[in-house]
Amino acid sequence: MQENLSTGQGSGYRVVDLDWVLNRKTQALLKRFNSKFNPNEIVVVARDNKVSVLLKAVDMYKLRSAVEEITATHSASNLFTQVLSAVESIGSYGVRAGKRHFIGYADERKVSNRSDKELRRGKYFYAKDHSFDEVVNTPPQNLVDKIVSGDAEYELRKLPDNCVDLIFTSPPYNFGLDYGGNGDDVRWEGYFDKLFAVFDECIRVLKFGGRIAVNVQPLFSDYIPSHHVISSFFIKRRLIWKGELLWEKNNYNCKYTAWGSWKSPASPYLKYTWEFIEVFTKGSLKTKGDKANADITADEFKSWVNARWSIAPERNMKAYDHPAMFPEELAKRVLKLFSFSGSYVLDPFVGTGTTAVVAKKLQRKYLGIDISDSYCDVANKRLGLL
Prior knowledge:
About 30% of the residues lie in helices and about 20% in strands. It is built from twelve helices and 15 strands. A hairpin with a 2-residue loop joins strand 3 (about 40-45) and strand 4 (about 50-55).
């Protein structure tokens, strides 16, 4: 069996050539078989005394029924068993209206009058009544390319409004990990109150059109959907939801964790191999910048706008004595996709400095803040500042 694609005038078929020599009896059966289908969807034809299946779309239930009917009444019908087998063996197709579609299934479905319909629905209605100022301010020089030890809620007050281009951070998840001697197991109400106090400052210092990207993993054992709680906070603050990235860590160690109600629907425990990055923008979907300072390549752009990023977890956490670092590749993608070279990047929970390290490598200015003196020392060493 060989497969190729026909290139007719805009109406090409997917063509499967079968290893079958026709005789008079099977020629008659071909007509009977084809009569059961729309020839613009599937047809079996004789070509140079051989048989080919021409495919665009097919109802598999109908195809199986037709083959079963013919094979039940005609002994010389193995051809149609081959037809069915050939169609079933094709792994690339789309499903629409109960049929497998073999041509154009990956094409985008076009929406007519898209702009009019978007206007009628209303884009990001939840963010319309903001009071964000478009005036841009300059950060103080003593907070550029710096790692600061302190409470981010208070340290951020030293920055003027509207001076940061991009915020990328991964706050403590409240999982109970030991972050340099600081607790990570407070009551959820207190955790979110403190986190949102920091995020309120982040929103203030973010420029109009600036982005904030938050890496977070829900604590499934507590049934706290942190990514949704955080997203709801930003929506209430009138930021625009830019999107959600899935960081696929391919961490299959999770298969060894608790199953919950084993082999019972009583309370199964769902497990995940990925984390989330929630991305919001302030005031406008478009950020200002000189196109000459866009340092993302065409291949990177095409790959990274696919919002499922397969990136291995950080392997060097023991060397930095940190329990929950993200890898440099994750920061690299966020910074290049959402900011221009020369931008001012903030991480208010910088930990051992990964965001700042990547910002420096990518010719961006940075400010990292962390409450742990020891982590700030590690960050400064990584940056060559100690």
